[in-house]
Structure formats: structure tokens, C-alpha cells
Amino acid sequence: MSRNRPSKLKVCGMTQLDQIHELISMKTDFLGFIFYEKSPRYVLDHLSPEDVLKIDHPGKTGVFVNEEIDKITEITEKAGLNLIQLHGDESKDFVNQLKQSLRPEIKIIKAIRIGNNDPETRKRIEKMINFHVSTVDYLLFDTDSKAFGGTGKQFDWTILNEFEIPLPYFLSGGISEENIENISSLLRKPFVIDINSKFELEPGIKNLGKIRKFISKAF
Length: 219
Description:
By secondary structure, this protein is of the alpha/beta class. It has one domain (about 10-219): TIM Barrel, CATH 3.20.20.70. It is about 25% helix and about 20% strand. It has an 8-stranded parallel β-barrel with strand order 1-2-3-4-5-6-7-8. A two-stranded antiparallel sheet has the order 9-10. The longest helix has 14 residues, at about 120-130.
């Protein structure tokens, strides 16, 4: 594997058990389940927490957006989640309270949404990185949107070269077979590449052939 390539893969927006098991057989490292009711990939429209619980995989990631701590904790236990991805506007105090309510082995990912590459945006991102570095296990950088992700749009990855990123990070937002080579422009490579809408037939229904091809190219 080239040093310019990521080490791990996350496929987000899972809704179909047969596809989940196929992705597990393809050695996918993280599986993302979206527990945000406004998302077109809202997992509870398709699977119950008990269905997710039965999936034998160490990288089951629950994606939450500005959700109540009690609800996150309840779903985490019922679904047997291994990681929590906070994709909203959660504060440092919120994260600390959440950690106290979860089992200690559960990892927390904090998403930082990126819009324009301008001085004000860079100042905000740097502040958020410094704000969360002591409370979470991973950062995730995604394209900013009112829909909180899943846009298929890529932000300017080179903005990440402006910052010290003290934690392993997930790179998300419009990643495709066509732009994955641009990872070479990053001074610090992502720990995980997080793919979603560019690899779908429709929201929540993945194009497994396209993912298989992507894995052979990017990993």
C-alpha cells in the first residue's frame, strides 16, 4: 500500500442487511448507521436496533445529529455500537457528559463540517479542533451542509494542511474513485476514508461493484 493511501475504509449510510454482510466479507473496517430521522438513510426505517446488534463487526458506528444523550445511550446499548459519530453542533460539555453515560470502550468521533476555504472558516476549524482534542478519539472532516452530510460534494481538502491535527481523522464528503488520488495533496493522511453517496444506487442502497472497484484502486 502506498504511503499516500489511507489505511482504513468506512462505508456510511447502511440500511440493507445483505449489503452489510457483503461489505464485511470485503473487509470494510467501519460500517456507518445513521440515526438521524431527517436523513434519507435513516437506518430505523429499515432495520431495528436488534438487527444491528446481531451484526458481528467491531466497527459499527452510530451517526447522531444533535441528539439527546439518553437516546444515544439507549440506541448504543440496544444496537451494540462500537463507535459514536457526533455530526451536529455538540459541545465539549455534551461530549464529556455522553462519555460518562457510555461504556468506556466506546470510541467517539466528532465531525467538523467545512464550507469555504477562507480566513473565517479556517479560524473556526482550528478552534473546533483545539476544542475537542481532549474529549474525543477521532475527528471527522466533512462538507458543510444543512442536511448534515450525505451531499456528495467535496470540500477543499488542502485546507486541512493549514492545521495541526493531533488525532487520527476520518475524511468524508463527496469522496469518489475520481478524486481519491487527490489525497496525495494532504500533508497528514486520513486514518479512514469515509464513503457514502457517491457509491449508491439510491439513498441507503450501495453500489457494491463500485465499492469493490474503489477498494482495489484506493487500498
